Amino acid sequence: MLDISVNCHSSIKIGNMYFDPYCIEYPTHDAKIVFITHSHHDHLSVKDVLAVSNDETAVVATPDCVNALVSAGIAPSKITTVKPDVKLTVKGVEVETFAAYNEDKSFHPREKNWVGYIVTADKERYCVIGDSDLNDSLVTIKCDYLFVPIGGTYTMTAAQAAQLANLITPKLTVPTHYGKLVGSKEDEATFVADVKVPYRILI
To answer: What are phi and psi of 148, to 5 degrees?
Structure first.
């Protein structure tokens, strides 16, 4: 297993790959790849992308993120745009995307084509859900490590997140998207009570 951490909210580091970097306290400039799930400010934070990036960093993002990234000085040649249900290789890392969306609220419409990611490293699959409700595009995911939002409001609830983890049965589940802007320790407690697979609290 690669080293994994959650900086805050949905700001995740897996090895030298960052997902939606946010509230980075000290610049690291150590990212091999930065993945952005969508353009909301708590997922596309340009100053935090710059804080973890260096001249060799690749950025993988949805098309609605590109203008902000380029305006911040990131070369278009370093940016790969994605939509749901694509497979590609970035800097030797196998990447898959899937649709991340809300079913019964308007924050993350399916037609926006926002994404979650599965990356394969050392023959293990790491899945970052992104901002999504529990929906049909998620229940067929196969992964070893699952990072799942539990905060409700903009994403699935803690109970739904536990339900998803129980369906996917990863080696390890990490709850995210709570404790900063939305979600609470009560949501964490609900997740812990309901989840039936191994988990780790990193927030």
So the answer is: -130, 135
